[in-house]
Amino acid sequence: MKLTPSHVDALRRQFPALARRHAGSPVVYLDGPAGTQVPQRVINAIADYLENRNANHGGLFATSRESDAMLDAAHRAVADLLGAEDPETIIFGPNMTTLTFALSRAIGRTWKPGDEVVVTRLDHDANVTPWVRAAEDAGATVRTVEVHRDDCTLDLDDLRSKLNARTRLVAVGCASNSVGTINPVRNICRWAHEVGAEVFLDAVHYVPHALVDVQDFGCDYLACSAYKFFGPHIGVLWGRRERLERLPAYKVRPAPDALPGRWMTGTQNHECIAGVLAAVEYLADVGRATTNHASLNRREALSHAYAAIAEYERALVQQLLTGLREIDGVTVYGITRDDRFAERMPTLSLTHTRHTASQLAQYLGEQGVFAWHGNYYALGLSEFLGREPEGMLRLGLVHYNTPEEVERVLTAMHEL
Ligand SMILES: Cc1ncc(COP(=O)(O)O)c(C=O)c1O
Asked: Which residue ranges have their beta carbon within 6 Å of ligand 1?
């Protein structure tokens, strides 16, 4: 049930990028929140698609049929990943931001002046501006939920006080891509539904680390991005069937009215969808390997994988935070207490009294530790924390990182 060092070794060997060296040392990839590396099987699946079944959708010939079979399999795989019962409610698109704009434009057409939309200061801007723009178009009012400064959690009292009979939609992230806070999305969905509002969840930063269950969360829509969960650059949207069927999607006339086609505008990135299928299979195989049950069905296997990943990543982030506490001049934002690690992802942002975020990122980058600086588009939080325009340094761990890598980062920060 655990990810042991030998499991992690075996998993790491599947990622060709992890063999890269920089300045004489292996690269430490701490840029996962901006995009993870991919296992060889994802690369193979993309190449295999282009080599062997490259065709457009709906043709009456072999390559098109094989391509469509692959697409159906990918919809089923992502339905398993998200706990969705209906593969036709899985929509692929260019990325989370573009899909969210498409959805917000369509939902916004059902709003009217006086309606209210709730966004948060903690979220990535891709879950803020699409709703703000749609509200502007409809004459609806936007309300923004505040954040607790001390631990960068959402102010849930503030959130509840902003819900009322006029609220049409609450847009909130499952987890912060900046400071790692996990939001209590089940409660938020329940509170929103009590006043008759819908909930859109941004799960981009959640899926690399934890099991999504759209039924259990109780959300109405959820979006994520495969390039953050070991797949290629492509986005995913899920919505409740009755809503996706009813909403006035912007589509061309010959495109189907049925799901999922009415939301998958234009010709899709088939080769990347093949890559997503392989990424989900990779994650399921993590679960099969840790339990030694090759026959687990995909959803069960994913559930075991995420349990093992969460436990492993929690130990890594604890090691990182414990080490950072010893380093003079470093401030870590968000939840830092050991007894609250279940409320955070292994992603943290920090500042240093003597070095800017870009100096830190450059210094680490020269030593082969790849990490992001700036606001990572979590603009509202960066402004709230007074970190604009420089931002913070983000260290993002995923399950292919190791305790030795964390030690290297800590040593580099000590030597700074
Ligand atoms: C939490 C979060 N939401 C949304 C996005 C936007 O995703 P995409 O790049 O697929 O549009 C990101 C990307 O960094 C993110 O981290």
From this structure: 33-34, 95-97, 124, 126-127, 173, 177, 202, 204-205, 225, 235, 377
Please identify, by atom number, the ligand 1 atom nearest to the C-alpha of residue 235.
Answer: 10
Q: How far apart are CA 205 and CA 186, in angstroms?
A: 17
| Ligand 1 atom 13 nearest Cα | 34
pLDDT tens for residues 283-341? 999 999 999 999 999 999 999 999 999 999 999 999 999 999 999 999 999 999 999 99
Show the domains of the chain with their CATH numbers: 5-39+298-415 (3.90.1150.10), 44-279 (3.40.640.10)
**312 Cα to the center of ligand 1, angstroms:** 24
Atom 15 of ligand 1 has which residue's CA nearest to it?
Answer: 204
Question: For position 1, what pLDDT does the model report?
Answer: 77
Question: Which DSSP state fits 140?
Answer: P
CA–centroid distance, 200 to ligand 1, in Å, is 14
Q: What is the mean pLDDT of the chain?
A: 97
Residue whose tokens read 């650059």: 233
The three-state (H, E, C) secondary structure of 277-294, written as one string:
HHHHHHHHHHHHHHHCCC
Closest CA to 250 of 262, 236, 238, 267: 262
Q: Is 77 exposed, middle or buried (0-12, 13-18, 19+ CB in 10 A)?
A: buried
Q: How far apart are CA 191 and CA 164, in angstroms?
A: 10
Per-residue pLDDT tens over the stretch 40-79 = 999 999 999 999 999 999 999 999 999 999 999 999 999 9
**pLDDT score of 386:** 97
Residue 202 backbone phi and psi in degrees, to 5: -95, 105
Q: What distance in angstroms lies between residue 404's CA and the mean position of ligand 1's atoms?
A: 28
Beta-carbon contacts of 378 under 8 Å, excluding residues fewer than 6 positions away, are 122, 123, 124, 125, 176, 177, 178, 179
What tens digit of pLDDT does each residue of 303-314 get? 999 999 999 999
Nearest atom, ligand 1, residue 34 CA: 14
Q: What percent of the chain has pLDDT over 70?
A: 100
Which atom of ligand 1 lies nearest, measured to the CA of 95? 10
CA–CA distance, 237 with 279 (Å, rounded to integer): 16
Angle (nearest 5°) at CA 223 between 118 and 43: 155
